[in-house]
Amino acid sequence: MNRLSSRHLLGLEDAPHRDIELILNTAETFREVLDRRIKKVPTLRGITVLNLFYEPSTRTRISFELAEKRLSADTVNFSTSASSVAKGESLRDTVQNIEAMKIDMTVVRHNSAGAPYFLTQCMETNVINAGDGSHEHPTQALLDMFTIRKKYGKLDGLRVVLLGDVKHSRVIRSNIFGLKTMGASVALCGPATLMPYEVEQFGCDVYTNLDAALDGADVVNVMRIQGERQQSGLFPSRREFSNLFGINRERLKRLNKNYTIMHPGPINRGVELTSDVADGDSSVILDQVTNGQAVRMAVLYLLSGREEGESQ
């Protein structure tokens, strides 16, 4: 039965193993669609999806839009600058007015943690979290896991290092929950000032020394250093961050032989990754982008309630 345990995808913290596996397996089918000459199926014909983005986004928004269009859904794109939000309208009033126009599914990105959950309390549509504050970004973690599994054929038993701003990264949080559920060993690495309080509660190995973290790792998923955080004095300079936590060719020698370099983008080249690493043979950064469409197609399909026979 192709059904997730919830009507919504709000995060991976409580997502069961079966749900994650179902999404990844379903994404395999849709990944094949993206390699066809005509990259479109009638799966969600008649379904209307609202893309409700209260935060700027390029990759995630385009990825969701393309996923929806390639499933033949009708899409509505919401921009705060051109809406009644600029006039002071509340989130509840905004979404209820839009839903009254017969929306079926809502993809939301918001700068406030918990906003997607709030929408489930005041809307009847399926809600998909496209990133909420510093909380979670589940589809990014799912596409990361899909990309890793596609290369290694498994997630169980792999050692994955999540590197960067652990304190504020919603991508890291979702990856922690998803990878651990699927049996991977997770290590966190970054400056002590970018580690959350009681970080040990995540149940991961924690490092503030990059060389130690990389020893014996299979995958390194490097997060963007957010320039807006740098103003808070959480690390002295980008140059110092690059010296202590940047991935360069020399540091790759510490990884297992068949290693993988990942990054959700956009990359600060020369800070998080040197260009030769970002563009090297072991980088799957562009594969992550392509796989993201397949994963988001899978999530939309599974939450839509459509039957398997309608998927192709």
What are the salient characteristics of this protein?
312 residues, alpha/beta, Rossmann fold, 2 domains, five-stranded parallel sheet, four-stranded parallel sheet, 9 strands, 37% helix, globular
Q: Would you kindly provide a written description of the structure presented here, covering whatever features stand out?
A:
This protein is of the alpha/beta class. It folds into 2 domains: 17-137 and 290-310, Rossmann fold, CATH 3.40.50.1370; 138-285, Aspartate/ornithine carbamoyltransferase (Rossmann fold, 3-Layer(aba) Sandwich), CATH 3.40.50.1370. It is 37% helix and 14% strand. It is built from 11 helices and 9 strands. The strands form 2 sheets. The chain has a 5-stranded parallel β-sheet. Helix 1 (17-33) crosses helix 5, helix 2 (59-70) packs across helix 11 and helix 5 packs across helix 11. The radius of gyration is 19 Å and the shape is globular. The mean pLDDT is 92.
Strand content: 5-15%
**Distance between termini?**
17 Å
If helices are DSSP runs of H or I spanning 4 or more residues, what is the number of helices?
11
Helix content range? 25-40%
Shape: globular
The CATH topology annotation of the largest domain reads as Rossmann fold
Largest beta-sheet details: 5 strands, parallel
**Sequence of secondary-structure elements:** HEHEHEHEHEHEEHEHHEHH
CATH architecture tag of the largest domain: 3-Layer(aba) Sandwich
Regions with pLDDT < 50 over 5+ consecutive residues?
Answer: none
Number of domains: 2
Instruction: Name the CATH homologous superfamily of the largest domain.
Output: Aspartate/ornithine carbamoyltransferase
Q: Give the C-level CATH assignment of the largest domain.
A: Alpha Beta
According to DSSP, the number of beta strands is 9
Task: Report the average pLDDT across residues.
Answer: 92
